[in-house]
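Summary for the steering committee. The consortium agreed at its last meeting that each partner would contribute one worked example illustrating the joint modelling workflow. Our contribution is presented below. We chose a case with several input lines so that the handling of multiple components could be demonstrated. No manual editing was applied between input and output; the record is shown as generated.
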Amino acid sequence: MTAKLQLVGIKKKLRGRQVLDGVDIDVAERRSLVIIGGSGQGKSVTLKCALGLMKPDSGQVLVDGADVTKMPEEIRARVMRKFGMLFQGGALFDSLSVWENIAFRLINADNVKRGEARERAIEVMRKVRLAPEFADVRPIELSGGMQKRAGLARAIIAKPDILFFDEPTTGLDPITADAINDLIVEMVKELGCAAVSITHDMPSARKIADEIAMLHNGKIVWRGPAASIDSSGNAMVDQFVAGRADGPIQAVV
Amino acid sequence: MINPFAPIGRGFLGMLAEIGRFSAFVGRTVAAAVSPPIFFGQLLRQVMQIGYFSLPVVGVTAVFIGAALALNIYVGGARFNAEQFVPNIVVLGITRELGPVLAGLMLAGRVSAGIAAEIGTMRVTEQIDAMTTLSTDPFKYLVAPRVLAATLTLPVLVLVADIIGVMGGYLVAVNSLDFNGAAYLRNTFDFMEPQDVGLGLIKAAVFGFIIASVGAYQGYRSNGGALGVGRATTNAVVVAIVLILAVNYLITAFFVE
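What follows is the complete predicted structure of the assembly.
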């Protein structure tokens, strides 16, 4: 199966520290890859390099086989239109209402009229089970779970080919987290897109992943089907999944 | 052995790097401001925010400065029996120097800090990254409208400050210094030349550009949570004030010479 998104040998140094040291991952259409790993292991930097928010020192980011790191800005911007992203804290714009947040791309990048954009935003709000009566409120008035739903609605409104999720369940109670996981699975299936998520929440990883990859010290140390995570044969994965302090991974405290 | 010149050299290189980064930021801002798409809604919102809502603070500053200026010139002029020059020097001082500089300094506090705090918060809460993933250039949507709005509205604010400042001088001169109102105004208008006001307006446009671009630059580059945003806000005010005073001298020297 052709990879929708492929990262090849991505290296990135930040403040003198080698955060990514040759990361290789790929994800095919209609597949969901979850990258797990401890704090400070380079998960967010991997995602930022894939999204074009950070330029890798070396390596390739291939979208449908084309290397976006070598593209002129205009063409790269066009390729990035295939992306949708749910940020960890929601990253909703404080100064705009919920529906304006969700329809931001339609109004400002796709030149959709405000009336039509609002209708489409409310339609997507229903999809992510966010009641339309919240359309005109400010994001600050929403609960954490609702903010995630609004962020998800904003990520999917333009029907992206590749969806990215940064710690989608962080800060949520277990029931709300599970509801968000269900939504992610449902939306990825419905859109037929590829999905890349980063998390250290194992229940979330098990639920939304077809495949899981573990990032440690800037490298992918294991990758396999989500169902085989408990029998990976990798001591670091076993330690991470079990949540033990003792093992090959030193806890950072 | 510790080289005592090393910290000086490091500081100098750091300053050059900062100037380079700021120049690149300004270049990108100007390119964003003059190429489509232009976000007119954002521009209008910023004109209101930066221009209209700054009117009270600029007006109050101008009236008191005009009044104090009239009193000081009266005292100084009395030493040479030249009290009659109060209206002339008030209008000259206000239009060429105090109107634009004081409006610029007030807006460095109000607007530059506000822009740095707003954009800085958006940076640390990933809202700017989110905007990029939504196929919208933050330079076009956030930075360019603020810089354009400040550059366009500060001359209007300074024009208002000029009028109010002169009126401040008039009120003190007529009510406390026994000047004849009609004569004071006639002297003011006879003495004032278009280039006096023009110089002030040119300064105002440049100060507006400095205020918004410094605030946006500091906010855009902020990191490290609330502490980083606080630092960006402080830096924005300090750098904007220093630049305004330095550029004010350069513009004045250029036009006087």
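The interface with chain B takes residues 48, 51-53, 77, 80-81, 83-85, 87-89, 91-94, 104-105, 108-110, 154, 164 of chain A (CB under 8 Å). The beta strands of chain A are 3-14, 17-28, 32-36, 58-63, 66-67, 83-86, 162-166, 194-199, 211-216, 219-225.
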